[in-house]
Design goal:
The complex is a heterodimer of chains A (about 200) and B (about 160). Chain A is built from four helices and eight strands, in the order H-E-E-E-E-H-E-E-E-H-H-E. Chain A has about 200 residues and is of the alpha/beta class. Chain A has a domain at about 60-185. In chain A, a hairpin with a 2-residue loop joins strand 3 and strand 4. Chain B has a domain at about 45-150: Nucleotidyltransferase, domain 5. In chain B, the strands form two sheets. In chain B, strands 1, 4, 5, 6, 7 and 8 form a six-stranded mixed β-sheet that branches. Chain B has a two-stranded parallel ribbon with strand order 2-9. The termini of chain B are far apart. Classes of the chains: A alpha/beta (about 200), B alpha/beta (about 160). The interface between A and B is large, with 56 and 64 residues. Strand 1 (about 35-40) of chain A pairs antiparallel with strand 8 of chain B, so a sheet runs across the interface.
């Protein structure tokens, strides 16, 4: 007994500190993979035997954006760069001066906002070529969404004094009613790939 | 107490392992919290396009993914270097997409079925032709909520 003596155990109280340090280090350095994207809603499918219905939207209510295979833009018949698109789209959606070439304004009663003139029937029609690059398409979509977001922010600031993202449910609903997102992706022409309406 | 140590053979102290479980548990929790399950093994190369107005996707369990891109190097021999679609873990043809969506949806709870979102993860160099085809078959499958996956860019206004 006298010869064999146990030395005292290593003090392990600092182990917790070390482990916490590691934990915090990993928490800081790990980037969690979050997926982000642009949400869209596709139109209802057409019954297989039905032809594409004739467009009954008034000419002045449509904002045509075409992207060709060289990723160039044709907006309302004129060439344009992606950067100019946002301002042009905003002008179209808003139609501040009640320009007869821009969409019809109708008086609508919206809860919280009262009577307000909005361009209820406007449609942004996005047409693309088969060879359009996906990135170019997304950029255009992005600019259009940005135009809506900016308009919504403007009216939110003006009416509620907050950004659109900070509004409560009823308020954001009202703002959405003022500027409904209407981006229509045209029925693609038959390019010889999968035929529209089969199956 | 104050003894003078004379003993020649000394035992090295046993390392205390009492805190080991704590550490292990902590790592476990850490990884549980941080890890997002890998959706699939990528067989196509997807570099998402960039956009500034992106939103975070909620409800990952209700999202199904369609990957569009060129096959990875190791699959090029078998599948060529043309843009392909990947559904789940396998390459698929555009004609299989509709059935894929329908069967995925029927596997969901009934209350969730109309909340299903399809996320299109396409490479930024993809041609729109194939994306159009995908959109058309999604329409036919009544999967109307879609998301174009994009990475956020910093805008300088």
């Amino acid at each position: 007994m006298g010869k064999k003596r146990k030395t005292s155990e290593i003090n392990s109280s600092s182990m917790a500190d070390i482990a916490f340090l590691l934990l915090i280090f990993f928490l800081v350095t790990t980037s969690m993979s979050t997926s982000t994207g642009l949400s869209r809603r596709l139109p209802q499918p057409l019954p297989p035997d039905m032809k594409i219905p004739p467009v009954d939207v008034n000419k002045r209510n449509i904002f045509v954006v075409k992207i060709n295979s060289q990723n160039q833009l044709l907006v309302q018949g004129q060439e344009m760069s992606v950067k100019e698109l946002r301002a042009k789209a905003k002008e179209f959606i808003q139609n501040e001066a009640n320009d007869p070439s821009l969409p019809v304004k109708t008086m609508v009663n919206i809860p919280l906002l009262g009577n307000i003139e909005i361009t209820k029937e406007h449609v942004i029609s996005l047409q693309n070529d088969v060879d359009t690059q996906y990135q170019a398409y997304i950029e255009v979509q992005n600019e259009l969404v940005a135009a809506y977001n900016e308009l919504r922010n403007e009216i939110s600031k003006q009416k509620f004094g907050k950004n659109f993202a900070d509004l409560d449910k009823d308020q954001s609903k009202a703002v959405q009613d003022v500027y409904p997102q209407k981006i229509s992706e045209a029925e693609p022409k038959n390019y010889g790939g999968v035929k529209n309406g089969t199956n | 107490m104050a003894q003078i140590r004379k003993d020649k053979e000394r035992e090295t102290p046993a390392l205390s392992t009492s805190s080991l479980p704590d550490i292990i548990f902590m790592f476990l929790f850490f990884f549980m919290a941080v890890t997002t399950m890998k959706e699939v093994t990528f067989k196509v190369r997807v570099t998402a396009p960039f956009a500034s107005e992106v939103q975070k996707l909620d409800n990952k369990s209700l999202t199904r993914y369609v990957y569009v891109g060129k096959p990875m190097e190791q699959y090029k021999k078998l599948f060529g270097s043309e843009t392909r679609i990947q559904l789940g873990d396998v390459f698929a043809d555009i004609s299989e997409l509709e059935n894929f969506i329908v069967s995925e949806r029927s596997a969901m709870k009934e209350t969730d079925q109309n909340l299903m979102t399809v996320s299109i993860k396409a490479d930024k160099d993809t041609k729109m032709g194939i994306v159009n085809d995908i959109k058309q078959s999604l329409r036919r499958a009544y999967a109307l909520k879609i998301v174009y996956t994009a990475n956020k860019t910093v805008v300088n206004n």
